[in-house]
Request: fold
Amino acid sequence: MGCGRPVSQMDLTGSGKAGAAYPNAQTCAADPDPDQNVKLDLIRRLIDNGKLYAALAHLEAARSDSRQSAYLRAEILRQTDRSEQAAPLYRELLGGCMAGKGYHGLGLIAGRDSKISEAIAYLQKAAIALPTDVRVRNDLGYALLLGRQFDAARNEFLTALELDGGDSLAATNMVLLLSVTEKKQEMQAFAAHMNMDPEIVTQLRAQAEEIKASLGRSTQR
Reply:
């Protein structure tokens, strides 16, 4: 989710990059053809660089039927606003070694549709399957934040920070959480400790106000 977008349209990825594929995706359910795996590595790099349509073209040219190719196709479709086509592909992953990635994708789709309880349920399953995946922890924490489960969200962000101390997404998500919960002094101290750009902190505080307004509207319904 990026700054300046309506909360109802925001992804569950906080203020970070929405397009990155899993760094260790190639370790599970790889294509039996080594040449195909080289092609899938290229496709992952294209996804990481935001070249989603080029990635899809290369994926179609590869004609791989591995679970990896199904996962990458689902990621591309989700990130190009074709969630209805992506969801069945994520569901196909739930019965095998890539179940965690399938749950993660379904959680992100639910979050984009503002189905926060459903998103939390999927992302909790993803975290069980992929307990050290920083991206999953961040996304679960953000869903918990939108679900007003602030203590649980804090635990997920702290887990992500300790798993990868250099993870900027976990740091920005923590600033968001502290701003939403109106812990101003703690937020300022944390931002200073992480050497965060004051302009970014200002943007995050504005984003936190959007989130608080959205939470207030949901409470009134």
In short: Residues 172 and 200 are 9 Å apart (CA to CA). The chain has eleven helices and no strands. The radius of gyration is 18 Å. Confidence is low (pLDDT under 50) at residues 1-10, 14-26.
